Each structure stands twice: as structure tokens, then as C-alpha cells.
Recover the amino acids of this structure.
């Protein structure tokens, strides 16, 4: 179908839902461009839905060379089965080298199914992507063995080389209205899904604030000891005009919503200042905060791993440090 051979290169799955907040596709286009330039190929974004043309223009303005569109009323809602059918057929026909998607809840469900259909591998939740200069293969760095190690995964035989990546690991390119690209509408065959029917969809109110864009983030860990202590973080965040994040045990204990979870299975933040209180510094957590410019850690254990990455460490009981910090800030602000 692709007589021009233009559609081989790097593919990015376009997730345009909640466009102004969900920037992962734009971030992946930027990384895709870099990979495509090294491989001397092109970046193609896949766009599925109904009346989605305006997003095609947006993706081109943010660096895509080509946008491949499938428009159909049955593609209006994101559904794993129908989306897998369309993308798998395109991949079989055009044979992309690389296929990237966001590690969003949809991406985490959709990409494994797609990889299985295409009989290829998938590196989930990658934190780095590079092209090996000797082999031209995609080096996919992802947490492995429960997140205790960072593994470099290579798919040497199967194609496409597939990876999902956390939002905010890469930086989007600025919008360039004069950018030129192609929009193509390859053939699609959409079968109505007889097993799942979406009756209506409603957007869930975001409860994690704007964590990913926040300039100041205060994170609480299990060491805080109680929901009451964790609540003090909201007061601190208000005084500093920041947002509150949490580690997995805190979410599990119900002191914070899942939307506040940072790390391998949560969000990635890049604030100017991050204050981490009562967190040990497990790799699965620090994966989500590596991009912070300055990290201040508070922990009662002087040997806690979090101090290895902190710019400033404070050894002490959180129940003593937090009230002191709040009192000082209240006087100053
Ligand atoms: C596959 C997998 C994925 C995971 N994904 C994530 C993820 O996305 N995000 C995440 O956060 N975790 C994740 N985890 C869990 C992760 O391994 C850690 O268990 C978790 O990050 C630890 O959270 P914590 O630092 O709050 O708790 P702990 O490890 O229990 O650390 C608490 C710290 O608080 C200190 N402390 C205790 N009392 C006080 C006090 N009174 N004052 C000051 N300090 C005190 C202690 O010294 C300790 O260092 C994942 C695990 C697995 C296996």
C-alpha cells in the first residue's frame, strides 16, 4: 500500500483526549523526531476517531512529518479492540520500525494487546529511548525486576520495536504554525464491537491538581505515619503555591488519591523544587522525580537512599520538622 515507502519509520500513537492537559503525544513526537533524524526516516502520528482533523494540524505543528488518520463513528470512543484492529492492520501493511505510545491507563491496556497481535515485544513504562549508533536498534530503558534495576531492552528481530513512555519524560517541541506535513487516510475496516458498547462517557474531575506542571511539589511518604500528618502537606503546598504528591504506600493507605502517585506506576514530575518527606527513596518512586531541579529530603534515618539524590537533606522526625516549617512559612508569607 505504501508505494512511496514513506510510512516505515517511527510511529507515535496519537492520544488527543483532554488535549490541553494531556501532552504525552506531543512529548513523544519530539522524541520520535530525534530518533527519526538519527535513523534518517520520518515521524508518523496515528490518529483514530471521528472528526479529528484539527488534531492532525496540531501534531504537524509540533513536529510530525505525517499524520495517518482513521475516521469512523465507531472509533469515536477509545476502545482497545477496535483500535487494536485498525493499528495492527496498518502496522502489518506499512511495517513501521518503531511504535511509541504514552504509558497512560489506555496505553497500558492497548499497547500489550497490540504487541501480542503483531507478535513483537513491548517495553512498558520506559524512562529513556536512544538509537544504538552501531546497530540502529532502539535502546529502551525501563525499570525491571520490580523496579530495582534499570534494564536496557533491545528488540533485535521483531518489528515494530514497541515502547510505552511516561508523560513528561520528554519535552514537547514548540508549536510552529508554519510547519508542513502530510495527512493521509489509509484504508480501514472497522468492525462494530459486539461485546462492548459505550453508552456515554463522563470526564472524571482531576483530583491530583496540576502535578505534572507544578513548579513546587511536596511529596509525603509512609514515614509521615498518619493521614493527619499527610494533610499538613496540603497546607504547606498552599503556602508555597505547590502541589502534593504521594508514594505508593500512602495511596494504598488511602491518605491520598491515586492521581497523586509519583513514580514508575504513577506520574513523572519536573518541578524546580521538590520536598520529599518520610520517603525512603525506592527506585520505583525516584523514577518519577529524577527531573526535579532541586530536591530537599526529610527522613529520620540518615542512611535512607533518598539522601543520595537530595540536594539538601534534613535528618529528623517529620512530626517535628513539618510544624516548624509551616510556622516559619506562615510568618514569612
Ligand atoms: C512493580 C512496582 C512498582 C512500584 N511503583 C511505585 C511507584 O510508582 N511509586 C512509589 O512510590 N512506589 C512504587 N512502588 C513501591 C516502592 O518499591 C516503595 O515500596 C515505595 O516507594 C516506598 O514508599 P515510602 O518511601 O513512602 O515508604 P518506605 O519505603 O516505608 O519509607 C518510609 C521512610 O520514612 C522514614 N521515616 C519513618 N518514620 C519517619 C518519621 N517519623 N520522620 C521522618 N522519616 C520517617 C523511614 O526512615 C523510611 O526511609 C512499586 C513497587 C513495585 C514492586
Amino acid at each position: 500500500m505504501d508505494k512511496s515507502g514513506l510510512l516505515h519509520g517511527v510511529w507515535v500513537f496519537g492520544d488527543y483526549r483532554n488535549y490541553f492537559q494531556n501532552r504525552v503525544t506531543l512529548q513523544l513526537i519530539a522524541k520520535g523526531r530525534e530518533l527519526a533524524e538519527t535513523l534518517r526516516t520520518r515521524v508518523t502520528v496515528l490518529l483514530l476517531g471521528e472528526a479529528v482533523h484539527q488534531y492532525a494540524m496540531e501534531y504537524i505543528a509540533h513536529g510530525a512529518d505525517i499524520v495517518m488518520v482513521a475516521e469512523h463513528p465507531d472509533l469515536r470512543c477509545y476502545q482497545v479492540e477496535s483500535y487494536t484492529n485498525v493499528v495492527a492492520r496498518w502496522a502489518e501493511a506499512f511495517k513501521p520500525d518503531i511504535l511509541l505510545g504514552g504509558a497512560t491507563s489506555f496505553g497500558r491496556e492497548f499497547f500489550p494487546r497490540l504487541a501480542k497481535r503483531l507478535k513483537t515485544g513491548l517495553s512498558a513504562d520506559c524512562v529513556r529511548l536512544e538509537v544504538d549508533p552501531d546497530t540502529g536498534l532502539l535502546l529502551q530503558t525501563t525499570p525491571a525486576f520490580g523496579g530495582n534495576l534499570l534494564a536496557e531492552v533491545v528488540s533485535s528481530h521483531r518489528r515494530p520495536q514497541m515502547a510505552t513512555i511516561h508523560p513528561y519524560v520528554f519535552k514537547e517541541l514548540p508549536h510552529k504554525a508554519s510547519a508542513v506535513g502530510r495527512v493521509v487516510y489509509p484504508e480501514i475496516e472497522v468492525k462494530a464491537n459486539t461485546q462492548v458498547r459505550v453508552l456515554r462517557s463522563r470526564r472524571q474531575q482531576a483530583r491530583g491538581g496540576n502535578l505534572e506542571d507544578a513548579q513546587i511539589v511536596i511529596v509525603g511518604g509512609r514515614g509521615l505515619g498518619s493521614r493527619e500528618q499527610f494533610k499538613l502537606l496540603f497546607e504547606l503546598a498552599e503556602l508555597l503555591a505547590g502541589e502534593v504528591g504521594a508514594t505508593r504506600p500512602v495511596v494504598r493507605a488511602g491518605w491520598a488519591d491515586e492521581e497523586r502517585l509519583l513514580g514508575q506506576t504513577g506520574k513523572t514530575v519536573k518541578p524546580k523544587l521538590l520536598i520529599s518527606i518520610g520517603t525512603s527513596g525506592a527506585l520505583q518512586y525516584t523514577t518519577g522525580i529524577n527531573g526535579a531541579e532541586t530536591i530537599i529530603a526529610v527522613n529520620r534515618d540518615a542512611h535512607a537512599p533518598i539522601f543520595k539524590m537530595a540536594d539538601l537533606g534534613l535528618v529528623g522526625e517529620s512530626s517535628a520538622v513539618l510544624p516548624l516549617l509551616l510556622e516559619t512559612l506562615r510568618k514569612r508569607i
Observations:
- The longest helix spans residues 24-39.
